[in-house]
Design a protein that fits this description.
Elements (H helix, E strand, L loop, with lengths): L1 H5 L5 E8 L4 H9 L2 E8 L14 E3 L9
Parallel strand pairs: 1-2, 2-3
Protein name: NTR domain-containing protein
Organism: Haemonchus placei
Length: 68
């Protein structure tokens, strides 16, 4: 997220991320993101805060469970 805050051409993020609608300084970053490779935890927001994520696609993933 920190790198995306420094660049305005970043359109994807990787990892397990948290979205909180009240984080105004990061809201503009979320508006430019089109894809997340991982997961997003959405916490403590109102319906209007979700408008920021309108064009977002999440390509969720889960680590394989290896049994030895």
């Amino acid at each position: 997220m920190e790198m995306a805050m420094k660049r305005n051409d970043c359109t994807a993020l990787v990892g397990d991320l948290a979205y909180k609608g009240k984080e105004g300084d990061k809201k503009y970053v979320w508006m430019q993101i089109e894809k997340v490779y991982g997961t997003i935890t959405i916490d403590d927001i109102s319906d209007s805060d979700l408008d920021t994520l309108i064009k977002l696609t999440v390509d969720g993933w889960q680590r394989e469970n290896f049994i030895r």
